[in-house]
Amino acid sequence: MTDHPSRALAAFASQLRFDSIPPHVVERTVNLYVDWLGSALGGKGARPVETIARFARAARGAPEAQGACDVITDRTRTTAYFAAMTNGAASHFVEQDDVHNGSVLHPATVVFPVTLALAQALGASGQEFIAASVAGYEVGIRVGEFMGRSHYKIFHTTGTVGTIAAAAAAARMLKLTPEQTLDAFGSAGTQASGLWEFLRDAADSKQLHTAMAAANGLMAAQLAADGFRGAQRILEGAQGMAAGMSSDADPAKLVDRLGERWATVETSFKYHAACRHTHPAADALLSVIEAYRLDPDDIASVTAHVHQGAIDVLGSVVVPSTVHQAKFNMGTVLGLVAWRGYAGVNEFERDYSAGDIAAFRERVTMALDEEVDRAYPARWIGKVTVTTRDGRTLQGRVDEPKGDPGNTLSRDEIAAKFVRLAAFSGAASGEEAQRLLDAAWGIAEAQRVSTLFGEGASA
Amino acid sequence: MTDHPSRALAAFASQLRFDSIPPHVVERTVNLYVDWLGSALGGKGARPVETIARFARAARGAPEAQGACDVITDRTRTTAYFAAMTNGAASHFVEQDDVHNGSVLHPATVVFPVTLALAQALGASGQEFIAASVAGYEVGIRVGEFMGRSHYKIFHTTGTVGTIAAAAAAARMLKLTPEQTLDAFGSAGTQASGLWEFLRDAADSKQLHTAMAAANGLMAAQLAADGFRGAQRILEGAQGMAAGMSSDADPAKLVDRLGERWATVETSFKYHAACRHTHPAADALLSVIEAYRLDPDDIASVTAHVHQGAIDVLGSVVVPSTVHQAKFNMGTVLGLVAWRGYAGVNEFERDYSAGDIAAFRERVTMALDEEVDRAYPARWIGKVTVTTRDGRTLQGRVDEPKGDPGNTLSRDEIAAKFVRLAAFSGAASGEEAQRLLDAAWGIAEAQRVSTLFGEGASA
């Protein structure tokens, strides 16, 4: 155990070589990238995403100016800073981006906006892109684990810790030294922000959190490259992130088996298009419905047995008034699963307040479960108790929800989700989506990462 | 007492009319603006400031593009976003910008970068500029008081709360409705950040905090103008700023005598160019030296009797290794005061590590004082105990350090400080400084706030 974990973590990110990353980690990182790109396409047209995109254009204030970096939702190009900001906003909107269970961090939406933009700006190779992305995942996940459960009760970890993940990815992309990378951590950590308060008002802050985590992390690394100094112990210091925003931080987690444990492959894909805290119960309910061949109308009540974090995040919404809020409502998610078999983007868009779904919602309650809570956040166990109208009490359970590392999505499933998201938002036709997919699967082999669209597109 | 203090505060900021601001408050706001402009000029050439300016140019990525908003340090023009960012960085560097005692907030460096940039972008009148600036001060100060002493132990209030002050000023400048202003508070508060950890490494984060508080606050208001929703109780809500970053927050302070108590005029000017926590003791030491006609060599030791906040912020630096760190070192400040009679920018630059100053530094200690601590932060009492080489024990005391509201600077003193700062950094010649001063004193009467420099300059 080092006496300076921030420094050890910065050195790891700075020195991570593509050749030292095992092939299965590279392969999974490509899958995570493709999955992320689908989510970014899926954000096109969403009001908060388009508002941030308009802000970015106005802040730049240079209508004719071009750039090397794709804005995925509208296929314009801009600087790395504004591309990271806009793509960071876009890729978290449909609630389909990945999540790491133990850290409760959504790494893709803060890491790939940065690595893609910088790789395009620098004309870097696919191998560099992968190495930098893995650096972002490995750092971000460990910092999320370090900050602990107390942090997540008030703070949106993907906003706060995501800034460090983005900085680590950017630092590796810019080939910063370990010392510069530590400076970047300092400038990123002192900008770490993101509060859950917005949830109870269905406000738009979630997109702002991911946009600015990506942009601020990139800024921190660019400043460090230019000699800007940051705090050397921003994570574990006496007036650092944990001191200010956690009561159960454990510095040992920052350097947990660096280079041996690949946290990147522990990341889960999202199958349902809802807050991840609903997925275990959704899959458990599906298992009961399938096992007992229940009709949704047979179900009198469902109790979802959950961890405390689920209650903290989902508990504030009783009757959702927007699609986005519905994705944070256990009753709506279980209703969609029961009636439609799947809680995807189209199901939410069409039916979140449909009569049958709203009626089912009223029959769902959450209860804190000791076993589930103890296992969390390392494992997200799904448990439900279903009572039927004919008086039966049925138990459902899944130990790994669909998309979790032990129950991961296949490349076919990821591709299908990608095409579905592109079609949902209208960001790409079926043919365009297929072309984007073909290129995206080959990102690790690219000699030079360039624009995804049009003439200059990577093979 | 309202049951929704965030909303009451947003409504106040949104509806503040120039005509309802008493003349003495307008006059003091002009003084604060002039004092701020001097600090911004003083930041020219400082490495962290220039690094942020380079970042802003690269992030914009449009070398030919112009804008309506002055970058004060280099007289270029850009968009409101990047002007706020760069001027926010510049105006906090020389540690000469104002401070409000009760909130421990430096309002000028987060408010004026926003109001000046937006007034220039919109061609707004001087009266609108003053009203928006006062809105920023009144809101920011109350939010700082609300967050309490526990917040300031870990967080740099000017970074965190400064984001809300900047948002309030920007919202008023953009003529947002009360509802939109509340949205802006939500988007600002969820980006509130800034940790003291950087102090122990003499890192550059202080400039980043003020740059991004100004830029993020402006962003929050621009997003709100475009329909982006924010949390409705970002300050006092169960997962809001106080819940996450304070243990002694008092919501009543948010709405303390709105429109009756003018907190703006409670703001202190900085006389010495050091962290404000050193000023009471510096003035108390000066009073002893003057009263007993001491020679610095007569002094065997000095104990500065301080409040806990001073120990928290100043305690981490023992031997300063940079000018900036020296400004956070009680011994260095008292040494400069004793030997040079004043701890100004030139004294720090030339002598912070000079032999006599370093030797004096070793004779200074801080001690927590119950009376001083109890009075803080409403009053910043200065108390020192001096022991002399000939065996005397002498007490020094000031109840209001120079620059405090009851002991404020005259316009002549502000002008002299302005000219000194412009000359120190080379940002303006004596003649240019005088021209800038003449225009700045008349800002409240300007029909239209335009560039400060060159052809298009305001009268």
TrEMBL record, chains A, B:
InterPro entries: MmgE/PrpD_sf, MmgE/PrpD_sf_1, MmgE/PrpD_sf_2, MmgE_PrpD, MmgE_PrpD_C, MmgE_PrpD_N. Residues 272-441 form the MmgE/PrpD C-terminal domain. Residues 8-251 form the MmgE/PrpD N-terminal domain. Belongs to the PrpD family. This is 2-methylcitrate dehydratase PrpD.
